Amino acid sequence: MTRPLTAAASAATPKPSGKGARPPGLFSILGPYRRQVILLVVLAILANVFTLFIPGLIARGIDNFVAGNFELTTMLVELGAVALVVFFFTAWQNMLQTLVSEQVAMDLRGTLAGTIAGQGYRFIEDKNPARLLTNLTSDVDSIKLFVSLVIPTMVTSAVVIVGTSVILLILDWELAAIVLLVIPLLGGTFFVIMGKMRPYFMQSREVVDWLNKVIRESIIGAALIRVLDTATLEQDKFNEVNRKGRDLGFRIVKLFSLMVPIITFVSSMSTLAIVTLGGWYVIQDSMSLGTFAAFLNYVALLIFPILMIGFMGNIIAQASASYARISEVLKAPKIIASGTHTAILHGHIRVHELSLDYGGKPVLRKVSCEIQPGTRTAILGPTAAGKTQLLNLLAGLSVVQHGSIEYDGKPLSDLDQASFFSQVGLVFQDSVLFNTTMRENIAFSVATSDAALQRAIDTAELAEYVASLPQGLDTPVSERGTTLSGGQKQRIMLARALVQNPRILFLDDFTARVDASTEQKILANIGRNYPGLTLVSITQKIAPVTGYDQIILLMEGEVLATGTHEALLHSSPEYVQIYNSQRSTSTYELRA
Amino acid sequence: MNYALDAQPPRPKLSILATLKGMVPLLEGEQRIIVYASLATLCNSLVNLASPLLVAHLVDTYILSKQFDGMLRYSLLLLLLAVVGLFTSYMHTRLMGGVGQRVVYGVRSRVFNKLQELPLAFFHANKTGDLISRINNDTDKLNQFFSQTLVQFMGSMVIMAGAAVFLLTINFRLGLAALAPAAVLVLFTRAISPWVKRRNAEALAATGGLSAEVSESLNNFRVIVAFNRRDFFLARFNEVNRANFDKAKRAGLANIVFTPVFGLSSMLAQMVVLIYGVGLIMSGEFTAGLLISYLAYVTFFYNPLRQLAALWANFQVALAGWDRIDAILEIRNDMPQLPPASAVAGASLLEFRQVSFQYTAERMILQNLDLVLQRGKTYALVGPTGGGKTTTASLMARLYDPTSGTVLFDGLDMRSVPPEERARRIGFILQEPVLFTGSVRDNILYGNIRLQSLDDAALMVQLEEEGLAALLQRFDGGLAASVAASGDALSLGQKQLLAFMRAVLRHPDLLILDEATANIDTVTEQLLESVLKQLPAHTTRVIIAHRLNTIENADEIFFVNGSGITRANTMQDAVDMLLQRQKAS
User: Fold this and answer.
1) Is the pTM for the entire model greater than 0.90?
2) Is the ipTM of this complex over 0.85?
3) B234 to chain A: which residues are within 8 Å by CB?
4) Cα(B510)–Cα(B393) distance, rounded to whole angstroms?
C-alpha cells in the first residue's frame, strides 16, 4: 500500500497517527471535521460498492433468462432499487464533500485572518500583504480541492485496491504477488515525482505573490504610469514574472505528464503478466480457466483507482506546498500579550533613553523627553529625522527595543492595549480610507454617539463639506478616496481620531496638507471642544507651533534641544537656523 | 463614462459555442499543437479500446486452444500497444499542459496590458483586490480547462463516438433505445448549464470581493492596529468570508448536480437495453450472447459520459471566469488618441479653452476654465482645499480629458500629442508619491531611458550637476538603499524627495508640482528650490501649494476655486482671495 493511502486512512480514524506522513500536517487540518470526513468516506465507499452490484445483477438476470426462470419485474425492481441507492449515495457524497471542503476553507481563512489580526503592524509588513493575500485565496483553494477531491478519491481507490489485492492473493498467491508488485513500483514513482513537483509548486505560489505585488503596484501607481507613459515598462515587469510562472508551469507539466503514463503502463504490464504467465499456467493446466478469467477481471478493476491516485498526485503536491506556506503564518508567535492596566490616561508621558534600529541602522538614539498632561508639545525636525518612528513607538505601533516609554508612570507594555488605543487619537501623515460610508470612515474606532461624531466633524472643520455631499454622512467613500482632495482626507483622518474622544492626540505632519488659516481654526476648535487633551504634534514648520508649551527638536534620531519657542531661540543654534530658514515666508503664513 | 466593471451593461447572452469562439484567439498559434495532442488522444483512446478486445481474442483463440507461441505473439502485440499508450498519453498530457500554461500566460499578459491602456478613472472605479483576483484566480480557471478538461473531453468524446457507432450498427433500434437516456441528458445539461454558470460567476465575484477586502485591510493594517479595530478587520473579513462560503457552496452544489444524474442515466440505459433486449430475444431477433456484449458496449459509452459530468462543471467554471476576464478586455477607453497634428508656430506651451470637468454627473469640479501657460515661467495655483487645483493639474498632464472644452499643448489638441512625447515633455509630481519595490536608484530612474544605462558613478556626476546629490544624503545607503512600495521604512518626506528627483531628472518642458514638497522640511525645501531654479530657462513650472512660501517666486498666481480661475496680481492679492473667498468645504 502506498503512503498517501496510509495517511488518508489514518486521517479517517479517530486517532490520526500522522507520524512520518508527508506532507506534514496537511491531514491535521481535518481533525475538527473528523465526523464529516468519516461519513464522506463511508458514503464514497457505499456508492462504489453498490455500483459493483450492477454487473452482478445483470449477469444473474441473464443466467436466469437462459435458465428460463426470468422475471422482468423482479429484475427491474432490483436494478431500479440499486440505481436509486447509488444515485442517493453519490448525490449525498458529492453534497457532503462540497460542504465539508467549503467549510474547511472558510474556517481555515478565518483562522488565518485571526492569526493575522493578532499580530502587530510589523508582522504584516514583514510577511508582505501580497503574500498574505495569496495565502488567504489561492493557498486555501488548493487545500479545499484537496479535501473535496483527494480524500474521497484516495479512500475509495484504497478500498478497491486492498479488496482486489486480497481476492487476488486468495485466488493464487504466487501470481498475485507478481501482479501486486506494481503497487510498490507505482508508489515509488508517485513519491519520486511528487517530491520533485512540490518545490515547483512552492515556487509557483511565490510567483503568484509576486504577480499580486506587481499588479497592485501598477494599480496604486496608475497615475504616475500614465504621466510617465511607462505602460510598456510595467508590462515588461509583469511579463517577466508571468513568464517565470509559465516556465514553472512547464516544469510541473513535464513531471506530471510522466506520472499518468507510467502508472497506466505499469498496470498494463500487470495485465500482460497475467496473460502470459497465467496463460502459460493454463496451458500447462496448473491454473483453471475460471481463475485465469477472474484474475483478468479483477486486474481490470485495479487499473482505474490506480490511475485516479496518479491524477491526485498533482493536487496533493500543490496542497502540501500551500499548507506549508499557510502553517508558516499560523505558527507565528502571538504578539506580546497586552498589559492589563485600564485606568484613564492623564497624558503624562515619559520617554527614557529610547533607541531604535531599523535594518541595522540607528534611527533613534537615546531619546528622552517628558510631556505633561493637558499640554501641547511639538516634535520638530527635518525629513528623515526619525519623527515618524518616534511616533510609532509612542503610539505602541512598534515594539520598544531599548529604553522605555511610560504613561502616567506605567510602562506602555503594562497598559491594556484596547484601553490604551481607545484613549489615544492618531492622525497619520498619509490618509487611509476604507471602502465604506463617510460615517463609518470617521466613526471608525468605536460605536459613537451622534453628538460625538458631530463634535469631531465640527472640530475638523468638515461640517460644510459633509453637508455638501449628496448623501451626507452616508455617502460612500472609495478605497483610495480619489475624489477627495488631500486636505479633505487629512481632516477626515483628524475627525476619525477625535471621534473616540481621546485623552492624547498625536498629529503626524498635520500642517503639511491643511492651509494655515484652517489649521488655526482647527487647533482652536480642539482646545475648545476637547479640554484637557494632551496634544503631541510632529511637524517641520515652526510657525504653527510657536505658542506650544514645549518644542522638542529632533535631528538624525537625537534630541538636540527641548523648550518653548522663546527659550529655544536663545539656547539652540540649530533651532534658530531652522527658524531663519522659514522666517522669510512666515509673514504670509501668520497673516493667512 | 462609468468604468466600474460591476456596472457594465449586461453582456449579450451568448451560446456556449459563441463563447467558445470568443476564446479561440487565446489559442492563437496553438492549433498545430492541439492537432498533435488530439491525434495522441485519439491513438490513446483507440489503444484503450483495443487492448481489452485483444485480450479477449487472445484468451479465446490461443489459451483455450493451448497455442503457446500464438499467445506470446499476442502478448508482444499487447506490450507494443502499452508502449504506444505510454507514449501517446505522455504526449497529450505534456502538449495540452503546455497549451494551458501558454494560454494562462497569454491571457494574463493581455489583461495586464489592457489595464495599462485604460485611463486612470478605471482604477478609481474598481477595487484593487478584485482586479488582482481576475488576473490571477480567474485566469487559472482557464488553465485548468485548457490543460486538463479539454483533452479529457476530447478523449471521452472519441471513445463515446466509437461506442455509439458499435451500438447502432449491431442493432439500430436497440442502439437508439440505449442512447435515448443520453439524449435526455443532453437536454438536461443544456437546460441547467446557464444556471450552473451563473452560480459559478457569483462564486468568482465573491472571491474577488474577498480578495478586495483582504487587500484593502492588509495594506491599511496600521490604522486597524492604531484604532484598535482588529475586530473591524475580523468582522469585515468574516462577512466576506461567509459570503464567499455561501456563494462557493452554491456553486459547488450546482457543479455536482451533473455527477449523480449522469450516473443514473447510465443505469437507466442498461435497464432500457435489458428490457428491450429481452423483448427482442423473445421475438427471436437477438441472442443472449449478443445481449451480454451489447451491455458491455453500453458501459463503454456511459463510463466516459460520467467523466464528462465532472468535466462539464469545470467547463462552466472556466466560462464564468472567462466572462470576468473578458469584461476587462471589452472595456472601451474613452480617452482616444487623435492622429498627430503638425506643430503650430508661436503657440503658448499650454492652454485651457473653456475647460469643464466633472468626475461624476452630480458634481461639477471645474467650469469653463481659461488658462494660458507660457514657456519658462513659474505659475502657482492656490485655492481652497477641494477647489480643483489637483484636478486642473491632472488635466494638464492628461490624466483625464475635459468633459467639455479643449486643452492645447504647443497649440495642438492635447489628445493628438503622442503619449511618449507627452510623458517626455510634461512632468507631474503627484500629491501621493508613488514608489516601486526596488532601490533608490530604480525609483529615481523609473521610466528614464536617457539615464538608465549610466553606472552609479556616472549617475552621481549627473545628480551632482543638477544639484540633486545632496538630497541622496537623506537616504542611508544612497542609490542602493532599498525601497519597499508599501513599507514605512521611508517617511512621506523621503518619498516626496524620490518623486521630486525622478521628475527633475527627466528634464520636462512643463513641470507640475502638486503639493510635492508638503512633508519636506524647510532646509531641504530650499535645496529643492535651488534645483528648480537650475532647470533650463525654457522650463515652465506649475506649483500647487497652500503654503505660500513655496510660491512666492511665481511669475503668476492663479486662484482656483471650482467655478473659475482668477489671476492674482500680487502675492497679497492671492492671500486676500484665500481669506475672503475661502470655499468652506
Assistant:
1) no
2) no
3) 113-114, 117
4) 11
